[in-house]
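Good morning C.,

I know you're traveling, so I'll keep this short. The sequence:
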Amino acid sequence: MDMTDNTETTNDTISSKSLPAILIGGPPHAGKSVLTYNLTIALRKLDVPHYVFRASPDGEGDWSFEGDLDTVREFIIKGKHKWSEIFRAIACYDLPHRQLPLIVDLGGCPKEEDTCIFPTCQRAILLFKKDGLEQDFQIWRSYIERDKLELLAEIFSQKLGESAGSGSEGPMTTLKPGDLRYNIEFGALVERIREIFSRYTPEQLEQWHLSQVPLESIVNLPKRLATLAPENDDNAWTPRVLQPLLASLSEQAAFSIYGRGPAWLYGALALHAGTRPFQQFDARIGWVTPPSLQAAATADQATSSNLSIEEPFVSDDIYAIALYPTYNYLDFRVADQLVFPEPLPQRGVIVSGKLPLWLFTALARFYAQRDVPWIALNDARDNKAIVIYSQVATHPLGKRLPMPKIM
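The tokens, ready to paste straight into the viewer:
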């Protein structure tokens, strides 16, 4: 079957600068991550193209509400970092290069020097605790006024109680202990954001993205999933679809992977491409090719100032590593500085950690070049490793493996 998904690609007047960005700010512990998560879930259900840019080094993401509890706890503990010059510089560089409308979760503790992020947005939502400090209100309002952001909503959260918005649809669902309530009608806020993000249709945005790669190379993941698993109402990839997907792809064309999917899916596609040209779409910076990674001469050398590598778990047949960005954000422009350990012979490799998709695909290629028996990438949602490459019958593609405890 040919790889092409027959999507017309025409470059409209869309540019990164023309795409809206809405900042969500407020003091710590007011519930910004919960609000951000609920907003993105509601927008996805309405098929509104957007991306949540977490411009905060606190280490939280969608996975912190959806994933296996133990894995989430580990990722948050190891992923939390303070604001730094490096994190600030990377975030402020990538934000203006956005490829989709953005919800920007700024976190709760930026300083004056961190507010380079504000001018990259046009609008803001402020969230405060109902019993918050007046000083917090003044600081965040001054940021919004200084950079002339349109204030869409000023929300007050509280534990328990009822939502007080006029015509309220009832309490907003939260996924954290101590259920929070808001003084707004959540549906009205979602509708307002939908209007703002609908400046361009999904078709226009997709055409803009796909116009930047050869038409014959495109693997459009949402359309593939709809064909392979039409009964799948939640648009979620499962390992059982992996082998049919790979079997449906042409053996001749290059690969340009577009659309939402887990790390293990992207890793499997990168390895299926082999030596053929491979690109993947990154909602932060556009089309990227997984970088070639450096191998360390010794295990002690497999570190960098940008990435923390946990002590590997080693057994008779497994070599497992976990990796975490030092500043909770990795800059694609310095990927050639990353150095990784060689696996031990005759052992399958499991990779886990809080990483961008482009590094998962790069690591899959790195270890496949080491002629390992099999490779699996962690799925944080249920803390299982999914086999994406195999040379042995005991580990077929799509097999789910328990995650070993990595120190």
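Safe travels,
E.
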